[in-house]
Design brief:
By secondary structure, the protein is of the alpha+beta class. The protein has a single domain (about 5-30, about 40-99), classed as Arc Repressor Mutant, subunit A. Helices cover about 60% and strands about 15% of the residues. The protein has six helices and three strands. It has helices at about 5-10, 15-25, 25-30, 45-50, 55-65, 85-99; strands spanning about 40, 70-75, 80-85. Strands 1-3-2 form a three-stranded antiparallel sheet. Helix 1 runs antiparallel to helix 5. The longest helix is centred in the last third of the chain and has 14 residues, at about 85-99. The radius of gyration is 14 Å and the shape is globular. The two termini are about 20 Å apart.
Length: about 100
Protein backbone atom coordinates (compact mmCIF):
# COMPACT_ATOMS: atom_id res chain seq x y z
CA UNK A 1 0.00 0.00 0.00
CA UNK A 2 1.32 3.41 -0.97
CA UNK A 3 0.78 6.22 1.54
CA UNK A 4 0.44 9.24 -0.75
CA UNK A 5 0.62 11.73 2.13
CA UNK A 6 3.95 10.37 3.40
CA UNK A 7 5.34 10.39 -0.12
CA UNK A 8 4.23 13.97 -0.75
CA UNK A 9 5.83 14.99 2.55
CA UNK A 10 9.07 13.23 1.59
CA UNK A 11 9.14 14.79 -1.87
CA UNK A 12 8.49 18.29 -0.52
CA UNK A 13 12.17 18.62 0.38
CA UNK A 14 14.60 19.34 -2.50
CA UNK A 15 17.46 17.37 -0.92
CA UNK A 16 15.30 14.24 -0.69
CA UNK A 17 14.37 14.57 -4.36
CA UNK A 18 18.06 14.95 -5.14
CA UNK A 19 18.90 11.75 -3.25
CA UNK A 20 16.26 9.88 -5.25
CA UNK A 21 17.75 11.30 -8.44
CA UNK A 22 21.27 10.23 -7.42
CA UNK A 23 20.04 6.72 -6.68
CA UNK A 24 18.22 6.47 -10.01
CA UNK A 25 21.60 6.41 -11.77
CA UNK A 26 24.13 5.67 -9.02
CA UNK A 27 26.95 4.93 -11.47
CA UNK A 28 26.86 8.56 -12.60
CA UNK A 29 26.82 10.04 -9.09
CA UNK A 30 28.95 7.75 -6.92
CA UNK A 31 32.41 6.29 -7.38
CA UNK A 32 32.15 2.53 -7.21
CA UNK A 33 34.18 1.15 -4.33
CA UNK A 34 36.38 -1.94 -4.36
CA UNK A 35 33.41 -4.12 -3.35
CA UNK A 36 30.06 -3.99 -5.13
CA UNK A 37 27.56 -6.09 -3.22
CA UNK A 38 24.64 -5.17 -5.47
CA UNK A 39 22.64 -3.87 -2.50
CA UNK A 40 22.58 -0.21 -3.43
CA UNK A 41 24.72 2.73 -2.38
CA UNK A 42 26.34 2.95 1.05
CA UNK A 43 24.66 5.57 3.23
CA UNK A 44 28.13 7.00 3.87
CA UNK A 45 28.50 7.76 0.14
CA UNK A 46 25.29 9.79 0.19
CA UNK A 47 26.56 11.66 3.23
CA UNK A 48 29.92 12.34 1.56
CA UNK A 49 28.31 13.61 -1.65
CA UNK A 50 25.80 15.82 0.13
CA UNK A 51 28.18 17.94 2.18
CA UNK A 52 25.60 17.91 4.99
CA UNK A 53 26.08 16.58 8.50
CA UNK A 54 25.58 12.88 9.03
CA UNK A 55 22.63 13.47 11.35
CA UNK A 56 20.90 15.68 8.76
CA UNK A 57 21.39 13.11 6.01
CA UNK A 58 20.17 10.33 8.33
CA UNK A 59 17.01 12.29 9.14
CA UNK A 60 16.26 12.84 5.44
CA UNK A 61 16.95 9.19 4.61
CA UNK A 62 14.63 8.09 7.45
CA UNK A 63 11.79 10.12 5.94
CA UNK A 64 12.37 8.52 2.53
CA UNK A 65 12.43 5.04 4.06
CA UNK A 66 9.26 5.72 6.08
CA UNK A 67 7.51 6.87 2.90
CA UNK A 68 8.59 3.63 1.21
CA UNK A 69 10.65 5.41 -1.46
CA UNK A 70 13.95 3.91 -0.29
CA UNK A 71 14.90 0.42 0.81
CA UNK A 72 17.71 -0.06 3.29
CA UNK A 73 19.79 -3.21 3.50
CA UNK A 74 22.16 -3.72 6.41
CA UNK A 75 25.27 -5.82 5.90
CA UNK A 76 27.38 -5.90 9.04
CA UNK A 77 28.11 -2.31 9.99
CA UNK A 78 27.15 -0.93 6.56
CA UNK A 79 23.75 0.33 5.45
CA UNK A 80 23.05 0.32 1.73
CA UNK A 81 20.24 2.33 0.18
CA UNK A 82 18.34 1.84 -3.06
CA UNK A 83 15.17 3.18 -4.60
CA UNK A 84 11.94 1.22 -4.18
CA UNK A 85 10.93 1.28 -7.83
CA UNK A 86 7.67 -0.56 -7.19
CA UNK A 87 6.44 2.13 -4.78
CA UNK A 88 7.64 4.92 -7.07
CA UNK A 89 5.74 3.42 -10.03
CA UNK A 90 2.59 2.92 -7.94
CA UNK A 91 2.75 6.50 -6.68
CA UNK A 92 3.23 7.85 -10.21
CA UNK A 93 0.23 5.80 -11.39
CA UNK A 94 -1.94 7.16 -8.55
CA UNK A 95 -0.90 10.72 -9.38
CA UNK A 96 -1.75 10.26 -13.05
CA UNK A 97 -5.18 8.89 -12.13
CA UNK A 98 -6.11 11.55 -9.59
CA UNK A 99 -4.56 14.74 -10.96
Amino acid sequence: MVDENLIHKALANPFRREVLSWLKTPGEHFVQGPVDLGCGVPASAIHARSGLSQSTVSAHVAVLIEAGLLVSTRMGQWMFLSRNEEVIRAFAAQISLHL
